Amino acid sequence: MNDEALHLVEVDLHTEHRVAPVDERIFGGFLEHLGRAVYEGVFDPGSPLSDDRGFRQDVLDALRQLRMPVVRYPGGNFVSAYRWGDGVGPIAERPRRPDFAWHSIETNRFGTDEFMAWCDALGTRPMMAVNLGTGRPADAAELVEYCNLPAGTGVADQRVDNGHAEPYGVRLWCLGNEMDGSWQAGHVPAQTYAERALVASALMKGLDPSIETIACGSSHKLMPTYLVWDRTVLEHCWDRVDYLSAHRYSGNGDDDTASYLAEGVVVDEIITEYRGLFDYVRAIKRSRHRVYLSFDEWNVWYRERSGDGGWQEAPHLLEEVYNFEDALVCAQYLHAFLRHADVVKIACLAQIVNVIAPVLTHPDGILLQSIYWPFALLRDAVSGDALRVAVRSPELSTRIGDVPVVDVVATFDETIEGGCLSIVHRDTHRDADVIIRIADRRVTVTSSQVLHAHPKTSNSWDDPHAVGPQSLATATDDDGAIRMRLPAPSQVVLRFAT
Ligand code: AHR
């Protein structure tokens, strides 16, 4: 690399310039009854790699490293025609059903109780979605009764009879899924959904006032009703719900990597638009209540778009193979959630195993895809508060306009007197010299890990470590400024202590 061709980037921080505490639930995941996510993914009875409950141990080990605080379940589009009662009780009595969403056969071998046990095994908390497509609000309330009420009422006693004496205490509840979409079972206009969601939320919170509910926002920024749907739902439900959902899947269908690597700017825009909407509805309601964003589906997804399972059990669907540029886009989603820590309180990587996932299974083992790594590095490094960051950077020309060559976030945690800084270097040609100054503290770099590869490099069964973290050299000047050279393209996650 020719020095004359280097980008020069300056980053300035002050550890008192804080956005908000980071809610660790932005590191959530999502498991849907879809393709091989559940069956052959997390649940594979009979496999030598599974325990006696059928839980794949290698999958659990890989996901444990990601320390997801919440996992959303059971869908997704699947939930909108799902009868939760099919998935509890004696296995032999559970019906096989056609799954409307993915044209697959659902055996119901894995259901609510198995999911709760799996969450326990993983060390995460369930985030349940209820069916507000074909299901009634009363059915949703009965699922809360099944999960959260002590023994002594009809539906809670079913749980006890099924071998689970103690309530599960599920705190987070999604009021349906993508109900703005014509593809969704039971899709209705915004006002009808809002009325349904309000009744459901009231019934569910009536049974267990400790729960929090998430209303469906728009399923995509490109929906014609984007933000109008959301405004209708919020105006109707404001005081009775706690979060509104946002979803986004990114893609590089026209192979324009420069523009693709600007995705973080679009995610920032979406969150900013929701921030404006929340402020507007709160103001016209003259309410003290706050609603936050639950970005409960995000990822790259554009190659394996067919959702037709051919009425098979566990068909191979949405098994996207990820490359390094996809990983850099995923890093930028997490950056955006951190940067807007005052608005985004929950986010779920969609999904976790086999289906648009960081982990792929095979009868003999697992593969960690490229997108596993930005999540793993940030999950490990981030704690405390998100900081405001001042960045001076050259720009790259892209389809959405000129964007900075780097995307930078930082956090600081007073309890450990340390913090982290993550930088995505978007340019694919020129390396960047980066100087970082922390105005109010002298710090020591305790670790610095970089992900760097050709944008089209993927991990594969033959070459499983093509994309993975390596250490990056840093230097500290006499005045305390940190210097490093970032290869193009890359992500670096640097940790420091004071
Ligand atoms: O994650 C795959 C699908 O994407 C989900 O089922 C749906 O909610 C979204 O459209």
Question: What report would you give on this structure?
Answer:
- The chain is α/β, with parallel strands linked by helices.
- It folds into 2 domains: 127 residues, Immunoglobulin-like (Sandwich), CATH 2.60.40.1180; 359 residues, TIM Barrel.
- The chain has 10 helices and 27 strands.
- It has an 8-stranded parallel barrel, surrounded by 6 helices.
- Helix 6 runs parallel beside helix 8.
- The chain is globular and about 70 Å long.
- The two termini are 33 Å apart.
- The relative contact order is 0.16.
- The protein binds alpha-L-arabinofuranose.
- The site of alpha-L-arabinofuranose has 10 residues, from loops.
State the CATH class of the largest domain: Alpha Beta
In the CATH hierarchy, what is the architecture of the largest domain at level 2?
Alpha-Beta Barrel
Largest sheet: 8 strands, parallel, barrel
- Tell how many strands the DSSP assignment holds: 27
Helix content: 10-25%
Bound molecules: alpha-L-arabinofuranose
Instruction: Please give the radius of gyration in angstroms.
Output: 23 Å
The CATH topology of the largest domain corresponds to TIM Barrel
**Class derived from helix and strand content:** alpha/beta
Query: What proportion of the residues form beta strands (DSSP E)?
Result: 25-35%
Inertia-based shape: globular
Poorly predicted runs are none
Strand ordering within the main sheet:
3-4-7-8-9-10-11-13
Number of helical elements:
10
Span between termini: 33 Å
At the fourth level of CATH, the homologous superfamily of the largest domain is Glycosidases
Instruction: Compute the number of structural domains.
Output: 2
Mean pLDDT value: 97
